[in-house]
Structure formats: C-alpha cells, structure tokens
Write a structure and sequence with these properties.
Strand 3 and strand 4 form a beta hairpin. With about 120 residues, the protein is α+β, with helices and mostly antiparallel strands. The protein has a single domain, classed as Nuclear Transport Factor 2, Chain: A (Roll). Strands 1-2-3-4 form a 4-stranded antiparallel sheet. Helix content is about 40%, strand content about 40%. The chain has 4 helices and 4 strands; from the N terminus they run ααααββββ.
C-alpha cells in the first residue's frame, strides 16, 4: 500500500507510539528506547555518544520534553512526515519535533528525526 492512501488517523496510529518511545528515550537518556524504531540508516547517523551529548544540550537549553501537538502530516509513496509543536519544561519557545516514518520491507521505521 502506498502511504499516500493512509488516512490521518492511520498515520497517527502508526506514528504516535513510535514518537512516544523516541521522546521517552530523550527524557530517560535511554538510547536503546530512543532508537528502538529507527531504520538502519538513521541508527548509523546517530550513535549513543551523540545522543547523550544532544540530551545534555537540550536539557540545559529547554529542559525535559512535555506535551506535543500535531501540526501537520506530509505524505509520499513510501513515507510520511509528521511535525509537532513539542513543549519542554524550561522554555516557552516553540520547538519543532519532526519525524519521517518510512515503509521498508513491509514495516514502518523512523527514518529521520529532528528537534529544533
């Protein structure tokens, strides 16, 4: 099935549990949980040392992740990208949480992740 055919509800049902683990991994500084849904490609770009360094910087700048609100969904044939407004405990700035989930070999994987 093409990801273009998925409804918003279907995409959210796939993406939310993955994003919950990604952000819980950030909160707990747990790379294994954070990366549990990552594609091989994404795991090769972000190792545990880089992850911990990024956690330290985010914690200093923003605090811990809190509530997030879905802003938009973008679809392609083999992937979809979601953008959230991600709240943090120590800042009133708006933080973008973005993830691309790709369909590979019949399974969905987080193929890109960004906090900005």
């Amino acid at each position: 099935m093409s990801c273009l055919e998925l409804t918003d509800a279907e995409i959210i049902k796939i993406a939310e549990p993955m994003m919950d683990d990604v952000m819980l991994g950030v909160s707990r500084r747990d790379y294994a949980l954070h990366a549990s849904h990552f594609s091989v490609n994404l795991k090769s770009k972000l190792g545990s040392d880089e992850f911990l360094s990024a956690c330290d910087q985010r914690d200093t700048d923003w605090g811990l992740p809190g509530h997030r609100e879905l802003v938009s969904i973008f679809r392609k044939h083999k992937s979809f990208t979601l953008i959230w407004n991600q709240q943090y405990t120590r800042t009133d700035e708006e933080v973008i949480a973005m993830t691309t989930i790709a369909l590979k070999g019949g399974r969905y994987f987080v193929d890109y992740f960004l906090l900005h």
